[in-house]
C-alpha cells in the first residue's frame, strides 16, 4: 500500500513539472499612447520609481507607465513632493495544461496575465498636507498554446494597450478624488 502512495506522489510531481511555464517571447514595439487630461498638482517635484522586469514578462510596461505619469502629472507648486511608485506593470505569459472537456485528456493552453499598479504619495510639510492615491488595472486571457508567434505578440500587445487605457481612467479618477487638496 505504501508503494502505491509513493508511486502516486511521483506521478503527481511529474505532472506538475510538465505544467511549468515556458520562456516568454519578448514583444517589441511601442505601447499605444493614452490620451487624457493633464493633472496639475500643487507640489514642487514629482519622483517616479519603477521596478526591474520579472521572469516570464512578455511586455515590460513600466516605461510606458512612467511616460504616462510624466505626461499627465505636472508639478506647479512651490513646495511639496509627489512620490509615484510603479509596483507592477507587465504582461506575463505562461503555458499550462488543463483538463480537456470530458476529463479524459489534457490540452495545452497559453495564459496571458497583465497588471498595472501604481501608488502615489503626496506630502507638503510647509502646509501640513498629505494624501495618497492609486490606480490599477488587470486583464487575463487564455488562448491555444500552439498559436503562431505573430499572434502571440498581437495578443500581448492588445492586452497592453487595453491595460493602459483602463489604468489611465483608474488613476485619473483616484487622484482627482483622493488628492483634491493638491489639485490646481
- Distance, first to last CA: 74 Å
| Strand percent estimate | 35-45%
**Number of H/I helices:** 3
The geometry reads as elongated
Q: How many distinct folded domains? A: 1
Tally of DSSP β-strands: 7
Structural class: alpha/beta
Indicate the CATH class: Alpha Beta
**What's the alpha carbon Rg, rounded to whole Å?**
22 Å
Order of helices and strands: HEEEHEEEEH
> How many strands, which pairing sense, and closed or not: the largest β-sheet?
5 strands, mixed
By CATH, the architecture is named 2-Layer Sandwich
Q: What proportion of the residues is helical, as a percent range?
A: 25-40%
Task: Summarize the structure in words.
This protein has 184 residues and is α/β, with parallel strands linked by helices. The chain has one domain (41-182): Double Stranded RNA Binding Domain, CATH 3.30.160. It has three helices and seven strands; from the N terminus they run αβββαββββα. Strands 2, 3, 5, 6 and 7 form a five-stranded mixed sheet that branches.
Amino acid at each position: 500500500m505504501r508503494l502505491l502512495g509513493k508511486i502516486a506522489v511521483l506521478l503527481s510531481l511529474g505532472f506538475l513539472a510538465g505544467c511549468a511555464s515556458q520562456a516568454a517571447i519578448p514583444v517589441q514595439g511601442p505601447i499605444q499612447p493614452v490620451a487624457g487630461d493633464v493633472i496639475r498638482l500643487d507640489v514642487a517635484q514629482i519622483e517616479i520609481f519603477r521596478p526591474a522586469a520579472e521572469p516570464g514578462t512578455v511586455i515590460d510596461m513600466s516605461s510606458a507607465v512612467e511616460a504616462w505619469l510624466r505626461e499627465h502629472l505636472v508639478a506647479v507648486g512651490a513646495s511639496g513632493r509627489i512620490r509615484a511608485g510603479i509596483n507592477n506593470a507587465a504582461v506575463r505569459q505562461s503555458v499550462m495544461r488543463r483538463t480537456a472537456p470530458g476529463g479524459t485528456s489534457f490540452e495545452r493552453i497559453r495564459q496571458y496575465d497583465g497588471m498595472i499598479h501604481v501608488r502615489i504619495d503626496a506630502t507638503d510639510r510647509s502646509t501640513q498636507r498629505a494624501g495618497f492615491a492609486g490606480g490599477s488595472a488587470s486583464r487575463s486571457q487564455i488562448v491555444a498554446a500552439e498559436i503562431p508567434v505573430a499572434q502571440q505578440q498581437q495578443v500581448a500587445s492588445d492586452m497592453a494597450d487595453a491595460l493602459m487605457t483602463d489604468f489611465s481612467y483608474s488613476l485619473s479618477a483616484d487622484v482627482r478624488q483622493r488628492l483634491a487638496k493638491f489639485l490646481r
